[in-house]
């Protein structure tokens, strides 16, 4: 375990934003994670658990307590069963499962961050989400003061949500277990229209696992969603806003305001419809690259808010508020931030 004082947090996030941590503890084993969290709790200190820093917006003032950085390692395959330590780099783990010929998370290639964050957000992309393959999550329960194992059903997964996100101060993810599938070198069925088109197949068809993985990486890179230190379009937290899920009444009011426009819509459960945040942002007048200051929309993807190299967190939040308010004024729909906010809010 490594302990440091007054450590800048910006270099530990994909946005490269945020002030210093009063105290930073880097934990390399599950036992060290638990010990560091328990010590902070017993001392009554504010606690922030940090993984890959890819879904995080930290205030310019930093964090006035203890930051526990999870740097644990562990990748274990037993047939189709995969166990990942929370600190494993997610994109590397996906690549290793593809190399092993296992389907189930191949469309989640290139997503930055650590494995431990995936159940918190119920990470998903291109028609796949981790809720489909997670069987168990091992976590430290700060309320009970002990490690617990939660089944996939106990995680209460929904769109970009989970039990862990609903109660963020209770659980610290230590390990994530998945059941993948050996499909004879083929991918899971292709569900996402953009991926199907780019691969030249129909929805529901399968392709070679390696082809699916490579195509997703290509698509993500084209949107600035694969980390590249030299490309400021990747200095982001990924998609900044979630796709709005509207009740029937909200959706009717929304469509009544569209006039001749036709917004994307997808069933999201009984009485609920999901629409596209990117479409809303674009059609509210915020084009790729919008912004004249040090924080702008990505030049490749309207959903990504980026640091052009000299931004502060307040610069980023001002842009986020401008976009949120503009979409509300144009369409009556409230955009909700996807990244976790630390010491700040919209």
From TrEMBL:
InterPro entries with a match to the protein in the record: FAD-bd_PCMH, FAD-bd_PCMH-like_sf, FAD-bd_PCMH_sub1, FAD-bd_PCMH_sub2, MurB, MurB_C, MurB_C_sf, Oxid_FAD_bind_N
Pathway(s) where this gene product acts: Cell wall biogenesis; peptidoglycan biosynthesis
Annotated PROSITE patterns: FAD_PCMH
Keyword Iron belongs to the record: no
Reactions this protein catalyses: UDP-N-acetyl-alpha-D-muramate + NADP(+) = UDP-N-acetyl-3-O-(1-carboxyvinyl)-alpha-D-glucosamine + NADPH + H(+)
One CC-aspect GO term: cytosol
Cofactor annotation: FAD
GO molecular function annotation: FAD binding; UDP-N-acetylmuramate dehydrogenase activity
Domain FAD-binding PCMH-type per the UniProt entry, residue ranges: 17-183
UniProt name for this protein: UDP-N-acetylenolpyruvoylglucosamine reductase
Name of the gene encoding the protein in the UniProt record: murB
GO biological process terms held by the UniProt record: cell division; cell wall organization; peptidoglycan biosynthetic process; regulation of cell shape
Major place of residence: cytoplasm
Subcellular localization: Cytoplasm
């Amino acid at each position: 375990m490594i302990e440091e004082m007054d450590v800048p947090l910006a270099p530990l996030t994909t946005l490269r934003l945020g002030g210093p941590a009063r105290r930073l503890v880097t934990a390399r084993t599950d036992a060290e994670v638990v010990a560091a969290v328990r010590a902070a709790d017993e001392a009554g200190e504010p606690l922030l658990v940090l993984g890959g820093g890819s879904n995080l917006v930290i205030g310019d003032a930093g964090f006035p307590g203890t930051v526990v950085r999870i740097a644990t390692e562990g990748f274990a395959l037993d047939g189709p069963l995969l166990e990942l330590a929370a600190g494993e780099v997610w994109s590397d783990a996906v690549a290793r499962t593809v190399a092993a010929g296992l389907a189930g998370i191949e469309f989640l290639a290139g997503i930055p961050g650590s494995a431990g964050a995936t159940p918190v957000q119920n990470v998903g992309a291109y028609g796949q989400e981790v809720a489909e393959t997670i069987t168990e999550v091992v976590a430290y329960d700060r309320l009970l003061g002990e490690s617990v194992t939660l089944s996939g059903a106990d995680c209460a997964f929904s769109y970009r949500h989970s039990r862990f996100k609903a109660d963020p101060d209770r659980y610290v993810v230590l390990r994530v277990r998945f059941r993948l599938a050996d499909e004879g070198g083929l991918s899971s069925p292709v569900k996402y229209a953009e991926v199907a088109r780019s691969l030249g197949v129909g929805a529901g068809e399968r392709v070679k696992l390696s082809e699916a993985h490579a195509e997703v990486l290509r698509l993500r890179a084209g949107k600035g969603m694969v980390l590249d230190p030299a490309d400021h379009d990747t200095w982001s937290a990924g998609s900044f806003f979630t796709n709005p899920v509207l009740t029937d009444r909200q959706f009717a009011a929304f469509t009544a305001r569209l006039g001749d426009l036709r917004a994307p819509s997808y069933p999201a459960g009984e009485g609920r419809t999901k629409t596209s945040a990117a479409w809303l942002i674009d059609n509210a007048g915020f084009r790729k690259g919008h912004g004249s200051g040090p924080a702008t929309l990505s030049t490749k993807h309207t959903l990504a808010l980026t640091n052009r190299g000299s931004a502060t967190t307040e610069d980023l939040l001002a842009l986020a508020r401008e976009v949120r308010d503009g979409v509300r004024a144009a369409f009556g729909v409230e955009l909700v931030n996807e990244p976790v906010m630390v010491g700040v809010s919209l």
